[in-house]
Design goal:
The structure is a homodimer. With about 220 residues, chain A is mostly helical. Chain A folds into two domains: about 60 residues, Winged helix-like DNA-binding domain superfamily/Winged helix DNA-binding domain (Arc Repressor Mutant, subunit A, Orthogonal Bundle), CATH 1.10.10.10; about 130 residues, GntR ligand-binding domain-like (Four Helix Bundle (Hemerythrin (Met), subunit A), Up-down Bundle), CATH 1.20.120. Chain A has ten helices and three strands. The first copy, chain A, has a three-stranded antiparallel sheet with strand order 1-3-2. In chain A, helix 1 crosses helix 3 and helix 8 runs antiparallel to helix 9. The radius of gyration of chain A is 18 Å and the shape is globular. Chain A starts with 5 loop residues before the first helix and ends with a helix. At the A-B interface, helix 3, helix 4 and helix 7 of A face helix 3, helix 4 and helix 7 of B. Chain A binds a DNA duplex (30 and 30 nucleotides) through helix 3.
Chain lengths: ~220, ~220
Amino acid sequence: MKPITAEEITTQLSEAVHEHRLKPGAKLREDEVSEVFGVSRTIVRQALRNMAFDGLLTIEKNRGASVSKPTLKEAHEVFQARALLEPSTARAAAERTTPADIARLQRHIEEEHRALDQGQLGLALKLSGNFHLEIARIADQHTIEHFLKQLIYRSSLVIALYWKRRDALCENNTHNTLVEALSKNDGNAAEDLMTGHLLNIYSQLDLREREEESISLRDALRQ
Amino acid sequence: MKPITAEEITTQLSEAVHEHRLKPGAKLREDEVSEVFGVSRTIVRQALRNMAFDGLLTIEKNRGASVSKPTLKEAHEVFQARALLEPSTARAAAERTTPADIARLQRHIEEEHRALDQGQLGLALKLSGNFHLEIARIADQHTIEHFLKQLIYRSSLVIALYWKRRDALCENNTHNTLVEALSKNDGNAAEDLMTGHLLNIYSQLDLREREEESISLRDALRQ
DNA sequence: TGTGCATATATTGTATACAATGTAAAGATA
DNA sequence: TATCTTTACATTGTATACAATATATGCACA
């Protein structure tokens, strides 16, 4: 049996973060991870570094890797960047969307709903993010898709930290209306809907300054 | 004397690529690099991986790292992405620009001209790219700056491959007018100037389909 | 008790040895 | 000579041993 690659470990761990199975602040010791996946630390270190590049992990010298805890500023930046990239991408996608794409998107939405119905919030969150990536894929913009992937992963971290009400999850029929616009190849509508959708998510975050940073006082004083 | 870190090697090699001292297609053998910098391959591999993440290097399994050769499609994508990110960023920067920022930008432009006068095209190119990064820094958009850095490095590769006339370099007083707009905190002007500036660079590229891909026939048939 | 110091342990950082793979050279056969 | 096969070499991939650093533990002393 072939051993698992660094890239596969990266994917699995990234999905765990995306689904909030690994929460911001969680430590990932190299030994631990290497034992779980049955490979040497060499491979694990590659995977951890990959994730650090995507902004999912923060690696501190001699102190190891832990799931990143985006600051308020970073949280804002992530959504500002998405606001720049995604609406135009949605427009470009609309102009290229094929029936096959629509079918795939609809299957995707179904999955999301199923996950929600079964109370698998983390999974639903991941699928919701992948929906956005799927649109960049349709737009055939590989470079932007690459950036967007990082932004969406980080969005998941932002949501983990700053989501207003965990109980009431957004009833997301926005994705449906977006697919509708795409199926009509209506670029204007797609762009506007995406803009609104992002603003909607953004508004559901609690991005006010807060005192409770005392938790991370230790970290704050470390240097 | 302290040994050089992977990050420092990353920077030095990245600058070499940015300045076209290392050209697209150039191979970087681990042994060679490790000897040059006096460190083990372990460190070199980290650096090479870093650069691969930024899109500067392409690493093929068991075949090593070489400076990336962006395809026509990637070339287009890079400038499309820049067109989405940079104008808005210039606007944001204009609204926050301080006299100290202006001074730094002007020093920057002087350096560019000096490099041009001395015929150091590569250096001038790098400085020109850094000018754009400086604007993202002023805008205080760390996330976008991070993406932009990758895009600008890749732009350098695109220019190396697709620049129309190497002899006639763009007489760049656009940077000057941009600084002027920034100094007046004129966001609208800054945004428009940046849009035009990017279009101008884009128009100086020869991004038509070409036959001479036969050079890479070998690579094409490899799988 | 509580604080400071010294020691022990845990964890990451780096170099190196060996394995796996790819590339080039030499030889065999037609 | 041309092509295929085999062999040798060069290069990258992975695991592991050891060094460096950070964290935790125990002890002395006030």
